[in-house]
Amino acid sequence: MVFQIDPDKPDVPALAPIALWMGVTTMIGAIGSLILAFSGYDWVKDVYAFAAAVLAFLIALILIAQGKILELLAVVSFRVKVKVGVEGSSSLLANLPTLASPATGGEKRPPIIPQKKPERVIHIPESQAREQGVRTR
């Protein structure tokens, strides 16, 4: 059995969807308060209803943003943990002594020399290059 982790579905804290949906509900309340502010009913104080709509809108933005940030932090944290784990296990495997075999005599292999990556070549027509001020080498 192989242990597999899906980096696109990490464990999101329960607070993230709660904050998100509280923000959505507060946004609906802000719209309702704004409708009441312009309704013209005698029992509604226009200034208070409009102030409540603005305040509810700001609170809704904060709650929705915090919910989304918590979801994204869980994804980023999980991916960093996976990356560190993979790099740590690969360096651990690279530093293990090789198994002694009669052909190699138990010698360690030399480290892999990193190769220089080839440059990207981008073709731009001369007319566009002159317009944009791009210089050729």
Largest sheet: none
Extended strand count? 0
The percentage of residues in β strands lies in: under 5%
Globally, the shape reads flat
Mean pLDDT: 79
Q: Low-confidence parts lasting 5 or more residues at pLDDT below 50?
A: none
Overall structural class, as computed from helix and strand content, comes to mainly alpha
Number of helices: 3
How much helix, percentage-wise, in residues?
A: 55-70%
Order of helices and strands: HHH
Gyration radius (Cα, Å) is 30 Å
**Amino- and carboxy-terminal Cα gap:** 54 Å
Describe this structure in words.
The structure is a single chain. By secondary structure, this protein is mostly helical. The protein contains 3 helices and no strands. 58% of the residues lie in helices and 0% in strands. Helix 1 runs antiparallel to helix 2. The chain has helices at 15-37, 46-95, 126-132. The longest helix is centred in the middle third of the chain and has 50 residues, at 46-95. The mean pLDDT is 79.
How do the helices and strands line up, and which of them pair or pack?
Layout: H1 15-37, H2 46-95, H3 126-132
